[in-house]
Specification:
The chain is an all-alpha fold. Helices cover 96% and strands 0% of the residues. The longest helix is centred in the middle third of the chain and has 88 residues.
Length: 92
């Protein structure tokens, strides 16, 4: 009878042990997931920084294109003016 009593007394302890083991497994999975998420987060931050750099470069290039277009228009207008003056000379 003593064995039966001590065996019954250990059942709650066995259940507790299984729950603790299960929780340890869950914690290990969560730690693995957290590590993967941290790595992904670092990669995404790097990607964002690279894209921000590319955006800044594109904006600079766009500004340069605009400046060059304005300069081209000025040159075109000056050349047109010079051509008009040459035509006005009537060198025939």
């Amino acid at each position: 009878m003593m064995k039966t009593g001590s065996a019954l007394d250990l059942e709650p302890l066995d259940r507790l042990e299984e729950k603790v083991k299960s929780l340890v497994g869950v914690i290990e999975k969560l730690r693995g997931a957290q590590a993967r998420v941290s790595e992904e987060n670092a990669r995404l931050r790097s990607d964002v920084e690279a894209l921000q750099q590319r955006l800044a470069e594109a904006e600079d290039a766009n500004s340069e294109v605009g400046r060059l277009r304005r300069e081209r228009d000025q040159v075109r207008n000056r050349v047109a003016g010079l051509l008009e003056q040459i035509e006005a000379l009537d060198l025939d």
